[in-house]
Amino acid sequence: MSRDPEARAPQGPAVRAEARGPFNTRCKTCREHIYKGKQFNAHKGTVQNEVYLGLPIFCVIKCTRCLAEITFKSDPKNTDYPVEHGATRNFQAEKLLEEEEKRLQKEREEEELNNPMKVLENLQELKAQPVPGQRGF
Ligand SMILES: [Zn+2]
């Protein structure tokens, strides 16, 4: 009973498992921070042709905020966990993002100082949340 043609899938059988955020990262969808050591319910499994010493080689978690799937790939050779998709790893990128946000925030504040009408516009922008998948009006 070891061979089951039905079991063939792009990825090996996934098992439910607990996973911890292997590093500080950030969801690409909602930009939620995912801190190192945070616990998740995850699916772990192997990717065909990429099994390394029988260790789980991928780990799928869901963002706690928007439920977007985030896939880590374990790399036991380098004891590393590159993000497969769904998130950005926080190193330099995190710092750059924060600086960019601060810069935009400052720009916006300065703009509002110079142009009181802009405050109203910005408020309206906040209210008019774009509907995903819908462009324009
Ligand atoms: Zn998210």
TrEMBL record:
One GO cellular component this record assigns the protein to is: U2-type catalytic step 1 spliceosome
Membrane-crossing residue ranges in chain numbering: none
State the source organism's domain of life.
Eukaryota
Q: Which Gene Ontology BP annotations are present? A: mRNA splicing, via spliceosome
Which Pfam families is this protein grouped with?
Saf4_Yju2
- PANTHER family associated with the record: SPLICING FACTOR YJU2 (PTHR12111)
Record protein name field: Splicing factor YJU2
Species this chain originates from: Hirundo rustica rustica
